[in-house]
Specification:
The protein is built from four helices and 16 strands. By secondary structure, it is mainly beta.
């Protein structure tokens, strides 16, 4: 199945035959698709929220949808708290990989995906990550990946996640990656191939923490 997740928290799980004949996505006004994942119907999906919680559901517990439908409102379906918002949807696969958690204060934590695996069918995990700074992004890591950080002062930094020690504790505060001046925060995290950066070497830090480099106009068009 292909899973689409929107900024407002709507999920569409669409089988291949429905996707092949689909037209334009129906979305709530002002909403947009922020994640698209090809996966299997029998895996779990993890939803990281802004309240240090993770909600889990097997995709086969959710009905198939169509492009022409708005989708399932995940906060309502999973019984999230009032005002709780989803930051990221993660496909954990076999729980063998690692996750990168990035915080607004420029710190990062690399945690085994297995830290979120449970023996029972628990729907909600509390204490899912540190509450010392707002969570900005959750990325499933793959071998050889780099990560691009963008700060609110117009600077960018590229780094290999392997530079961060793996921590077993979900609530680790992480280590400083991006040196930020007062009033500035980390506001966007992506894999480099999802950005408009062409001169990757300019933004690679020799060591961490680092201040990064000012983003050139030609590298920011697709940020």
């Amino acid at each position: 199945v292909t899973v689409f997740f929107t900024r407002e928290g709507y999920l569409k799980k669409i089988p291949p035959q429905s996707l092949r004949t689909a037209g334009a996505h129906k979305l709530k006004e002002g909403d947009e698709i922020i994640q698209q994942v090809e996966t299997r119907n029998n895996v779990e999906a993890l939803f990281f929220t802004d309240k240090q919680q993770v909600y889990k559901v097997r995709l086969n517990e959710l009905e198939d949808g169509k492009v022409a439908q708005m989708g399932i409102f995940i906060p309502g379906r999973l019984g999230m708290d009032e005002g709780e918002s989803v930051i990221a949807m993660i496909d954990p696969g076999d729980y063998k990989k690692h996750l990168l958690l990035m915080f607004e204060n420029g710190k990062a934590a690399r945690i085994p995906m297995a830290a979120y695996e449970t023996k029972t069918n628990r729907r909600r995990l509390t204490g899912a990550y540190s509450d010392k700074s707002p969570l900005i992004a959750v990325l499933p890591l793959y071998e050889g990946s780099e990560v691009a950080l963008f700060a609110s002062d117009g600077r960018a930094l590229l780094f290999p996640p392997e530079a961060i020690a793996l921590k077993a504790s979900r609530t680790t505060q992480g280590v400083a990656l991006l040196t930020l001046k007062k009033k500035y925060v980390l506001d966007t995290v992506r894999f480099p191939e999802e950005t408009g950066i062409t001169d990757l070497a300019r933004y690679r830090g020799r060591s961490i923490p680092a201040t990064g480099a000012l983003l050139k106009t030609e590298d920011s068009d697709d940020k």
